[in-house]
């Protein structure tokens, strides 16, 4: 009886030992299957203020999803608006000083018409021997003088109008500058992504360059991994790869990835590698584009597996 019990115990220990050995072997094997390992990154943008003033509204929360060009707040623009109205008023006043060329030269043109009519009358009298040559010369001299006065007045008026036009263009540029500054009073998300950090609150005073919030494109993640020189012949830009990452003790998930960039210069293995011998190796950095389904997070570890035959 005792012999049977001992035999059963020995059998259980043997089976337990085999199970543990199989577990270690499978774990070791899955780790060896990975061609490289790395961490996930995302394109991060720190959005800063472009104008000075009090933050009147700032509707942003950490973890919130924003779309590209979405307005999330405003900076006080009262002074800019008043300056714009002042410039527009000065432009209107400037335009009111523009002379009316047709009205200004109408009197001289009428004098020329009258003088030419008189010349025709004198010419008819001269043909009838009722006038002398001097009368005709006087009328021609008067017409020539009036025409020169007309040309001089036209030139002066055109010069005045040209100066007003140039001044008006300068004022229009000032208005465009104010409009650009008013546009910069809007707080806008430059990309679509998730808000990671919020640096300011409504009611604070902003200044150009002051960080307001950080946003990252978490829909498109980047796995930065490191490969050895021997692996360079097995990978190229545009190649499809398989990315796997662990979610807890026994849960893992695979993603499709595409090689986006390979460093053209070797570097020492980053210090995040635990052993000193491994850190002394020369490796090449690679970036893998991975479409995120919502499970991947910045800083998570991932394993890279090259697809055989993808080259």
Count of strand segments:
13
Strand order, largest beta sheet:
1-8-12-10-9-13
Using only CA atoms, what is the Rg?
Answer: 42 Å
* Beta strand %: 25-35%
Shape: elongated
**Model regions low in confidence, pLDDT < 50 over at least 5 residues:** 1-31
The helix/strand order is: HEEEEHHHEEEEEEEHEE
Oligomer: single chain
Proportion of residues in helical segments? 40-55%
Mean pLDDT: 85
Helical run tally: 5
- Separation of the first and last Cα atoms: 65 Å
What is the structural class? alpha+beta
Largest sheet: 6 strands, antiparallel, barrel
Ordered list of secondary-structure elements with their pairings:
Elements: H1 2-33, E1 36-48, E2 53-58, E3 65-66, E4 71-75, H2 78-96, H3 101-127, H4 133-183, E5 186-188, E6 193-198, E7 205-206, E8 211-227, E9 240-246, E10 252-262, E11 267-268, H5 276-279, E12 282-291, E13 301-306
Antiparallel strand pairs: 1-8, 1-13, 2-4, 2-7, 3-6, 4-5, 6-8, 8-12, 9-10, 9-13, 10-12, 11-12
Written account of the structure:
With 311 residues, the chain is α+β, with helices and mostly antiparallel strands. It has a domain at 79-183. Helices cover 43% and strands 29% of the residues. The strands form two sheets. Strands 1-8-12-10-9-13 form a six-stranded antiparallel β-barrel. Strands 5-4-2-7 form a four-stranded antiparallel β-sheet, with no helix packed on it. A hairpin with a 5-residue loop joins β9 and β10. α3 runs antiparallel to α4. It starts with a helix and ends in a 5-residue tail after the last strand. Mean pLDDT is 85; it is low at 1-31.
């Amino acid at each position: 009886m005792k012999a049977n019990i001992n035999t059963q115990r020995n059998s259980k220990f043997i089976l337990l030992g085999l199970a543990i050995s199989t577990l270690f072997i499978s774990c070791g094997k899955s780790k060896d299957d990975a061609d490289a390992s790395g961490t996930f990154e995302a394109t991060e943008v720190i959005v800063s203020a472009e104008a000075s003033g009090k933050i009147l509204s700032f509707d942003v929360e950490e973890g919130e999803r924003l779309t590209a060009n979405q307005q999330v707040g405003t900076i006080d623009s009262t002074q800019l608006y008043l300056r714009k109205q002042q410039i527009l008023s000065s432009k209107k006043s400037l335009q009111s000083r523009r002379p009316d060329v047709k009205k200004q030269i109408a009197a001289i043109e009428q004098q020329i018409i009258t003088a030419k009519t008189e010349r025709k009358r004198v010419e008819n009298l001269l043909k009838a021997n009722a006038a002398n040559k001097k009368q005709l010369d006087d009328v021609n001299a008067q017409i020539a003088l009036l025409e020169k006065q007309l040309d001089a007045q036209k030139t002066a008026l055109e010069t005045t109008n040209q100066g007003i036009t140039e001044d008006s263009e300068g004022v229009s540029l000032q208005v465009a500058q104010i409009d650009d500054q008013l546009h910069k009073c809007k707080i806008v998300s430059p990309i679509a992504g998730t808000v990671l950090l919020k640096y300011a609150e409504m009611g604070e005073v902003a200044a150009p360059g002051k960080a307001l919030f950080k946003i990252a494109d978490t829909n498109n993640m980047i796995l930065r991994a490191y490969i050895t020189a021997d692996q360079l012949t097995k990978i190229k830009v545009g190649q499809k790869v398989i990315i796997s990452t662990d979610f807890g003790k026994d849960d893992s998930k695979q993603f499709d990835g595409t090689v986006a960039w390979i460093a053209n210069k070797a570097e020492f293995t980053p210090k995040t590698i635990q052993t000193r011998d491994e850190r002394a190796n020369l490796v090449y950095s690679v970036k893998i584009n991975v479409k995120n389904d919502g499970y991947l997070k910045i800083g998570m570890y991932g394993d890279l597996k090259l697809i055989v035959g993808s080259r």
